[in-house]
Amino acid sequence: xxxxxxxxTRKLDEIMESYDYNKSNLIAILxxxxxxxxxxxxxxxxxxxxxxEGLSPATVFGVAxxxxxxxxxxxxxxEIRVCDGTACHVRxxxxxLNAIRNKLNLKxxxxxxxxxxxxxxxxxxxxxxxxAPVCVVNNKVYPxxxxxxxxxxxxxxxxxxx
Length: 162
Ligand code: FES
What we know:
With 162 residues, this protein is α+β, with helices and mostly antiparallel strands. It has seven helices and four strands; from the N terminus they run H-H-H-H-E-H-H-E-E-E-H. The protein folds into two domains: 58 residues, no CATH class; 84 residues, 3-Layer(aba) Sandwich (Glutaredoxin). It starts with 8 loop residues before the first helix and ends with a helix. The chain binds FE2/S2 (inorganic) cluster. FE2/S2 (inorganic) cluster binds next to helix 5.
């Protein structure tokens, strides 16, 4: 399999080298790669799988798909997580979710906005049920969200990026 041009193989070499090309450090290596790209590009997994002894692209792909912390799809600069667990659902997570989709022009099932700035993930519980409905944008927790409140937050971010 060929390696595409979208990945920086020198950067990948640097990361693997910092972990002594040791396959037992594969998860840490993939975490670093995800920090660089905000997801795990297929070409990066193929490259790592062919460069590291005792691994194959299939093994790397298997590890990446097993752990929920890894994303195989590009993520936006702003990662939005909307809780749709029971407490949040009952208190109105769906209108919040719909407001986000409308604001970012995300079709049903579309994860990342066309401009690559925002990605949306629906989660089942963020462990803050007393603050329902809850959204998280890049680790910042927004409690008691409404469609108006999340629209204002997104407008501010969109303006900052304009
Ligand atoms: S159900 Fe949303 S934080 Fe628990």
